[in-house]
Amino acid sequence: MTDSAKSRSGKRKLLILMVVIVALIGCGVAGYTVWKRMKAPADPTAVAKHQPPAIPVFFALDTFTVNLINPDNDPDRVLYVGFTLRLPDEETRRRMSDYLPEIRSRLLLLLSRQTAASLASEHGKEQLVTQIKQTLAPQLVQGQPQQAVTDVLFTAFILR
Fold it and tell me: Do 71 and 141 belong to one domain?
């Protein structure tokens, strides 16, 4: 063999070795990238979608029985209603429990101002839900935050 053949064969071996090393490094980088992508979520909103919703906080109130306003002064117009309040957090439930007599008083005054005709329709009941939220919203004691009632759920509703 001549010197030029030996040098070509040595260069060829070196070239093949370099190609193999570059290919191994490329495969390693690609494998690491795939592994990182599989480990991390695709987007941050996907993480939020997979978290279970917060446990709801409910505050059940005893039923209310009130005489309703009616134009013909019929004393038999009575509303028997029970509902549960959905609250945003446990702190609001604790505060409402502490001031339960004031909560019940506000609700009794509100319910006694209703008329049988307005409560007979579904729209009237929806308006009552809105009014209950507004009645309970003001703070109970100076310096405390306002109450937030997420929803009012009727558990009993008898209009007689």
Answer: yes
pLDDT tens string for the chain (160 positions)?
555 656 667 778 888 888 888 888 888 888 888 888 777 665 666 555 667 777 889 999 999 999 888 777 666 789 999 999 999 999 999 999 999 999 999 999 999 999 888 899 999 999 999 999 999 999 888 888 888 999 999 999 999 8
Token pair belonging to 110: 């509100």
Residues 75 and 18 in one domain: no
Q: What's the DSSP call for residue 63?
A: -
Give me the domain span that covers residue 21. Answer: 3-50
| Judgement on whether residues 67 and 132 belong to the same structural domain of the protein | yes
For 150, residues 6+ apart whose C-beta sits below 8 A from its C-beta are 86, 87, 88
Let me know whether 148 and 86 are in one domain: yes
Is the pTM higher than 0.90? The answer reads: no
